[in-house]
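Re: export button greyed out
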Amino acid sequence: MISQGTLSFLLWGTYAWFVVGVILIAVPAIKEIFGILFNK
Amino acid sequence: MGNYYGYIILAVFAVIFIGISFFVSKKFPVEGVDDFVAAGRGIPSSLVAASVMVSWVWTTTIMGAAEAGMSFGISGGFNYAWGNSIPFFVLIPLVLHLRNKMPKCTTFTEFIEQRYGRTVSKIFFVFGIGVIAYVMIAQGVGIGIVFNSMFGIPYEIGAAVPLIIVTIYISKAGLRGSIFNDVIQFFIISIIMIISVPLILRSIGMENIYSGLVDVVNNPENINHNPEVLSLASSGGFRYGLTAVVVAMGQVLLDQGYYSKAIATASSKQLLKAYILGTVFAWMPIPILCGGVFGCSVISLGVGEGAGLSLTSEAAPYIMKLVYGGGLGSIMFVLMVFMAGMTTGGGCLSGAQALFTADLYKKYVNKTATEQQQMNFGRKITFAVSAVVIVIAILLKGKSLLMMDIFSGILFAAPTSSLIAGMYCKKTSPTIAIVSIICGLASGLIAFFVIPNDDINWFVGNILALLVPAAIVIIGSIFSRYEFDFDKLKNYMPDHTVNK
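Workaround output, generated via the alternate export path:
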């Protein structure tokens, strides 16, 4: 049985993992979309 | 909630997504078949990553993982995540290898035809369309149920309208339109998750969640009593993950939508980056969060089937309503499921469009067709496939998808071994491929129907459908005298002009 600290680490850690993943995709994706909308 | 909220959501997003497809087709006029089904092979990694992530977020990724969290506790989401990720760790090197060995390939059935011949290719074509139809039906049914239960909109409208929207934007702008809409849907799903998870954890409180789960572990009177709920090594959870591997294997490896996106990516380096980002970084945490936060929060509150919920699949909407309040929570939840279903359905439909446009029409229907005629056929067949899917989804009103899911594992796992072997092993012959598929299907179905115990027959059937063909392919290839010359794939040229 895991402790409260481990549960907290798992859930918040997974949340941080998701946020990092989204940022890694979203930042270049926004740049690409702006490029498509305004440069071409 | 009043059903007008549901109609407003359907109408607003119909305008947005169809509008985007018109914008995309105006900005990037479709110049030929390759542009239509492979987006000109120049899409950057960030857009493909967003598209891959949302394509693998099914309605069940949200609702099913939350249910797994209720059933298996903290390990439920983790097992859902690894079980459904393994097929991507098979697919990623496979598509990289395909791009390298057969640079002008557009569909996986083209590869199968060159590798094993036309007969085997036809078999894979049927499986490919079967997977696409199954996945689309599952999304239509899922969205229909959610719109019906949350807004009271007739199930038939909730199931049909999202599929009609997807069909219009895919037929209008092809794969490029699908990817651009996927990116918008990626932002909507991500924003809702990023806001909701901390809100749920703060509202209920980590201490309360933990003490509620300890009660689930220790109190036999607790409605959700499960001694393994706080264990990461739950045996039930592990079996659940193992079954997910088998069921997902065919759904990933036989879905042309993933091959189309891989081929549409600008380079192999960007393809690797896009698929790793889309699956490992962005997709994998979603079922873990849905299981760990949505599912575990619900059981920590003492809520369960028959005690606050009529079905465990209501775990995710229950927690959203609790935290946001009925109105906003319902809308946020419906938006997530709506986006998840639309992107998954869209990815599949663009795959079907590619199979029919690039592979079927010129070979079997009109050998002298121009590219414009091929695309016209692709557009018409997209509507035809969608119409069939909508009718089946409507007919499945009130039916459980569980049986379909079990069968999808047995049916679609069988061809995956010969597909993988065909990519890497020169000694796997067309005969071995056909025998492995037949034996895999037969052993899986026989196990399912002959084993009287309903608790294990589906599990054994799925495992056999995957492992029997694998054993036949391995043993058959070791003793085979057949040798395939992979070099001839390098010079393959499809019936349409390839842009790069």
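The mean pLDDT of chain B is 92. The button fix ships in the next patch.
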